Automatic annotation (TrEMBL):
Domain Tryptophan synthase beta chain-like PALP positions: 132-460
Pathway: Amino-acid biosynthesis; L-tryptophan biosynthesis; L-tryptophan from chorismate: step 5/5
Cofactor(s), names only, from the UniProt record: pyridoxal 5'-phosphate
Pfam families with a match to the protein in the record: PALP
Region annotation (Disordered) ranges: 1-27
Species name: Camelina sativa (False flax)
EC number annotated for this UniProt entry: 4.2.1.20
CDD domains: Trp-synth_B
Name of protein: Tryptophan synthase
Length: 475
């Protein structure tokens, strides 16, 4: 929304010799200020010929007003605006060392968006290497499971991102960013990972394009995702364990950012979610937007319309945003994100950032965070390594405040039950992250009208989680 401020000042002209550097400094400050126009209007004054000062009124106005209030038309929203913000969320809260790299990355992203050669190469790799498009599968037995006694109930469709090369949605973004890094001349790649799926995807594309690859992973996550650690090393990546803090995704991300600050000239950071400083939330979203675009086209082919409800798990939020982005302007389509409630929302051991968090800054962006009264990050918990993060992508925070998306949470126990239920009903073993979204169907489906079409983003397969689940479930 528009904002302006009016200042009144007494300005005293000074000799050129003493004012030039000061004036230049002031102008530089004004140019870097996040405002678009500067209007100086002399105020009436009793300035006499003997006086060397006069009064001015200075009005600094932001970009033209855009109505971004809850209930307003999403088609008019700036996502993001020219400063990388989604409403008050997002931005660039980073060391000066990274500002040039982020600006270079943003410029390259915009340039390649209209580069036909780049787009053809990316489309070819997504088709022939990743295996897109992924099916929109009608889950017949899951649909039957939620049918009520009177025979009515919703229709459940699964967007099968688990069938992508490497077994999750993460490869969409990793491939695109690797191609972008090559265009920038960066031959060293770093990434963070929690569940290991983004790490595996990054190691995979680095092997494909012959790039040096370093993956940062929390020591706790390395233990519970040992299979993915082996896969990354097999693919030629160096996996660096992070033992600081909680030894999970937050700490791996912090270490990756420290590496990037130190090696920014030669290194590209393939951030794995719609989090971090601008342009990452926008860029990662757009590279995953293929999920929603395919879903729209497939829905039109299958039933001649749009989905009624979209469901996806949310940690950082990349798979959800990949599905949601295409449908944001379709206000009749419900968008539901499912977070990790861990041991329960009242236990203090959860990762339900949008449900229980407060606004703050983490890893270069303003968003909802799990933090204490002093602003210190609270250790999150989830049985799912990929949802075990105390922040969330800034656009999800924006959607929450605008009322465009709904966010709920699922406990570890509920996710484990869904892991087993979907494996037995559909013959598809889901990732624990995906299991949270699947578990929410238990609460959602009884509330839906007959024939409501639900599309759930089946974001990853559960091979990586079998050892973890075996400790909790008797099968």
């Amino acid at each position: 929304m528009a904002a302006s401020a009016t200042f009144r000042a007494s300005v005293s002209p000074s000799p050129p010799s003493s004012s030039s550097s000061s004036s230049s400094s002031q102008l530089t400050h004004l140019r870097s200020s996040p405002f678009k126009a500067f209007n100086f209007t002399p105020l009436p004054s009793s300035r006499s010929s003997k006086s060397s000062s006069f009064s001015v009124s200075c009005t600094i106005a932001k970009d033209p007003a855009v109505l971004m209030a809850p209930g307003s038309d999403p088609a008019l929203w700036q996502r993001p605006d020219s400063f990388g913000r989604f409403g008050k969320f997002g931005g660039k809260y980073v060391p000066e060392t990274l500002m040039h790299a982020l600006s270079e990355l943003e410029s390259a992203f915009y340039a390649l968006a209209t580069d036909d050669d780049f787009q053809r190469e990316l489309a070819g790799i997504l088709k022939d290497y990743v295996g897109r498009e992924s099916p929109l599968y009608f889950a017949e037995r899951l649909t039957e499971h939620y049918r009520r006694e009177n025979g009515e109930g919703p229709l459940i469709y699964l967007k099968r991102e688990d069938l992508n090369h490497t077994g999750a949605h993460k490869i969409n973004n990793a491939v695109a960013q690797a191609l972008l890094a090559k265009r920038l001349g960066k031959k060293r790649i770093i990434a963070e990972t929690g569940a290991g799926q983004h790490g595996v995807a990054t190691a995979t594309v680095c092997a494909r394009f012959g790039l040096e690859c370093i993956i940062y992973m929390g020591a706790q996550d390395m233990e519970r995702q040992a299979l993915n650690v082996f896969r990354m090393r097999l693919l030629g990546a160096e996996v660096r364990g992070v033992h600081s803090g909680t030894a999970t995704l937050k700490d791996a991300t912090s270490e990756a950012i420290r590496d990037w600050v130190t090696n920014v000239e030669t290194t590209h950071y393939i951030l794995g979610s719609v989090a971090g400083p601008h342009p990452y939330p926008m860029m990662v979203r757009d590279f995953h937007a293929v999920i929603g675009k395919e879903t729209r086209r497939q829905a039109l082919e299958k039933w001649g319309g749009k989905p009624d409800v979209l469901v996806a798990c949310v940690g950082g939020g990349s798979n959800a945003m990949g599905l949601f982005h295409e449908f944001v302007n379709d206000k009749e389509v419900r968008m539901i994100g499912v977070e990790a409630a861990g041991f329960g929302l009242d236990s203090g051991k959860h990762a339900a950032t949008l449900t229980k968090g407060d606004v703050g800054v983490l890893h270069g962006a303003m968003s909802y965070l799990l933090q204490d009264d002093d602003g210190q990050i609270i250790e999150p918990h989830s049985i799912s390594a990929g949802l075990d993060y105390p922040g969330v992508g800034p656009e999800h925070s924006f959607f929450k405040d605008m009322g465009r998306a709904e966010y709920y949470s699922i406990t570890d126990e509920e996710a484990l039950e869904a892991f087993k239920r979907v494996s037995r009903l559909e013959g598809i073993i889901p990732a624990l992250e995906t299991s949270h979204a699947l578990a929410y169907l238990e609460k959602l489906c009884p509330t839906l009208a007959d024939g409501t079409r639900v599309v759930l983003n089946f974001s990853g397969r559960g091979d990586k989680d079998v050892q973890t689940v075996a400790k909790y479930l008797e099968v």
